[in-house]
Amino acid sequence: MARQAALPRLVLDTNVALAGLLWGGPPRRLLQAAGAGAIELAASQELLDELARVLAYPKFAKRMASGGAAPTAWLQSYAALVEMTPAAAILPTVAGDPDDDRVLACALAARADIVVSGDAHLLNFKHFHGIPIMTPREAVARVVR
Q1: What is the pLDDT, as a whole number, of residue 71?
Q2: How many domains does the chain have?
Q3: Is 4 domain-assigned?
Q4: Can you tell me the distance from the alpha carbon of 140 to that of 142, in angstroms, rounded to the nearest whole number?
């Protein structure tokens, strides 16, 4: 898929993707904007693998069942919204949660305009290689019309 320069490209942390799929609010608005072609989402295989693991947690089973779909269906609906990007190789960056490095590695490789997270470990950075890191609410205010 060729990138349209005018569309903002975002990388969503797994917590934001999960919230958008299973709940409402700003994370859902970001997924809806991607579905409407108003923004682009990028993800790496590592991020999709993490989302698949999280969707399989028993604590989300009831929520997914109320939506009438199995974890694989939820994952497929998200995967359909994202452009797959091989993650860049980066030095360890997030000491408090090394798993968050995969979000930054994807954002760097995808040349993202914004990283969206609800995780304080990432939000405390504010920027990574010039890419702003913001909450879902901040991202919606910036890119969803």
Answers
A1: 82
A2: 1
A3: no
A4: 5
